[in-house]
Write a structure and sequence with these properties.
The protein is of the alpha/beta class and 328 residues long. It has 2 domains: 29-144 and 268-297, Response regulator (Rossmann fold, 3-Layer(aba) Sandwich); 149-266 and 300-327, Rossmann fold, CATH 3.40.50.2300. It is built from 13 helices and 12 strands. The protein has a 7-stranded mixed β-sheet with strand order 7-6-8-9-10-11-12, with helices on both faces. It has a 5-stranded parallel β-sheet with strand order 2-1-3-4-5. The chain is elongated and about 65 Å long. 42% of the residues are buried.
Length: 328
């Protein structure tokens, strides 16, 4: 080996580790996850698992090329504003907000960081986005409300109890989505020539009184509107419906798993899995304003036969054939 080749070889050998040291560290995208719920709730855990799986399916691995900061309000929605502000201070690349209260808190905290709605209830009606096709601003994602959903729930309920024309609807007036859902219920009741009684529950302590009001008005069946507080108290609500012998329809399968009679609504686990596709697109350069809000395409009908038997009801074969889940 001549002297010139030796010197070049030494230079390459010395430069190699220096070049390796000079390689930039792999960028880890930062995603905030804001929820009004508690991770101790099995329903919440199911949703988080679906979101994580959706990310993995798209090539994102927590701790490798993505880092997720979770913030839980533990059923105290008044904490959401502070938690959202904390995620903004941490300079997240994207914030995923679960349910309408979290979305509203995130929107109030930032007008620049992209926000992905995991399961918004009526994002247009509540003023979160400008429209489904062109959300505008920094927010996009998935809506859990479909046009006519409450009407479909009412139709299913009247199939099950065709002789009743007195229907109660239970909602939480502090939730911005309550009014649009109530309007859907009123429209559906008029079409069915049914009398509708609107009953409110702002907190768990209001539930006993709400059911007492239904009984005073001789309600024959019940529709429970979509709401985070009501969903958290699905087991007490199902128990009160049973105690007062009120056939009820709900918007999520979890109510039926907690003893409720029947549920019809979007597959919420699928919505959380789909939320990952929005995170993926935004991290790859897409702007939220250019991504249309996705409405649910998968709906589930669930029926609890044990509850039906306890209420003295026979489920029509037409309903059983359409059911995605039947609990015995």
């Amino acid at each position: 080996m001549d002297r010139r080749a030796f010197v070049i070889g030494i230079g390459v050998t010395l430069a190699a580790p220096l070049a390796a040291e000079a390689q930039p560290a792999r960028k880890i995208s930062r995603v905030g996850y804001l929820s009004p719920s508690s991770l101790s709730d099995p329903r919440t855990q199911r949703f988080v698992d679906a979101f994580r799986q959706g990310l993995r399916d798209l090539g994102w691995s927590d701790g490798d090329n993505i880092g997720i900061e979770y913030r839980w309000a533990d059923e105290r929605t008044e904490r959401l504003a502070g938690l959202a502000s904390e995620l903004v201070r941490l300079r997240m690349d994207v914030i995923v907000a679960a349910t309408t209260p979290a979305i509203v808190a995130a929107k109030q905290a930032t007008g620049t960081i992209p926000i992905v709605m995991a399961n918004a209830a009526g994002p247009v009606e509540t003023g979160i986005v400008a429209s489904i096709a062109q959300p505008g601003g920094n927010i996009t994602g998935l809506s859990m409300m479909a046009p006519g959903l409450v009407g479909k729930q009412m139709q299913l309920l009247t199939e099950l109890v065709p002789k009743t024309n007195r229907l109660a609807v239970l909602g939480n007036p502090t939730n911005a989505i309550n009014a649009p859902q109530l309007r859907q219920a009123q429209d559906a009741a008029r079409a069915l020539d049914a009398r509708l009684q609107s009953v409110e529950a702002r907190a768990p302590g209001d539930l006993e009184g709400a059911f007492a009001a239904m009984i005073r008005e001789r309600a024959g069946a019940l529709i429970v509107l979509t709401d985070t507080m009501l969903a958290r108290n699905r087991a007490p609500i199902a128990a009160l419906a049973m105690k007062n012998r009120l056939p009820a329809v709900y918007g999520a399968t979890e109510y039926v798993e907690a003893g409720g009679l029947m549920a019809y609504g979007p597959n919420q686990t699928d919505l959380y899995r789909r939320a990952a596709t929005y995170v993926d697109k935004i991290l790859k350069g897409a702007k939220p304003a250019d991504l249309p809000v996705e409405q649910p395409t998968k709906f589930e009908l669930s029926i609890n036969l044990k509850t039906a038997k306890a209420l003295g009801l026979t489920i029509p074969p037409s309903l059983l054939l359409r059911a995605d889940q039947v609990l015995e």
